[in-house]
Amino acid sequence: MPWTATPFAWTIRWGADHEKYGDPYEGVATLVRCGDKGYVSATAGSKLRISEMREFFKFCKAEGIAKVDWDHHGVSQQVATELARLRSEWDD
Fold it and tell me: Would you say 80 and 72 are in contact if contact means Cβ atoms under 8 Å apart?
């Protein structure tokens, strides 16, 4: 019988020397998918740069996630503003 599997949770890791699983990383977060929405929380370590966030949003779109909400606890005003701008561009 045919079947499919859809991932619904990812552990996202990043860092200057991080290329693949097992490499050292500087930050980590959890992405949970609920239908076509994504929720990022449980972030720890270094903050993502704006360019890295753009790549993250591209990953989400490629996975069919139409909207991402990011837990803003501890996020700088500049990053929060950029997240809002990226979200507004999301539908373009």
Answer: yes
